[in-house]
Design brief:
This protein is mainly beta. Helices cover 4% and strands 44% of the residues. It has one helix and eight strands.
Length: 110
């Protein structure tokens, strides 16, 4: 995903001091979302929109995200997420992983 530039798409975030873009592959399992704080002196927060359709994810479902620089896993829900970056960690690289299956996703759930 990182070896090519034709798969780069700038995405929506509500803070002009942050830049947010995605690197997409034909296989959505290898999509990266990259967020960078452009302000070297201050903490910046922004609400971003995750391109769920492009990632093959449902609008109302949960999905796992692996933040690669900090090696943290989290579960996100929905299209919008608020992220905070500070001068000590001015960037985040997120690998969006497949949908999380919950008990209600299985046929035997009543």
């Amino acid at each position: 995903v990182l070896q090519h530039t034709g798969n780069l798409k700038f995405l929506d975030i509500d803070n002009d001091q942050m830049i947010y873009y995605g690197k997409f592959n034909l296989n959505p399992c290898y999509a990266l979302l990259i967020l960078v704080n452009l302000d070297p002196s201050n903490v910046q927060s922004g609400t971003l929109r995750v391109p769920l359709n492009q990632l093959g994810l449902h609008q109302k479902g949960s999905y796992q995200v692996h933040e690669l620089l900090l090696d943290r896993h989290s579960i996100w829900e929905g299209e919008t997420q608020t992220i905070t970056l500070d001068p000590q960690m001015p960037a985040g690289i997120f690998l969006v992983q497949k949908k999380i299956r919950r008990e209600i996703d299985f046929e035997y759930f009543l």
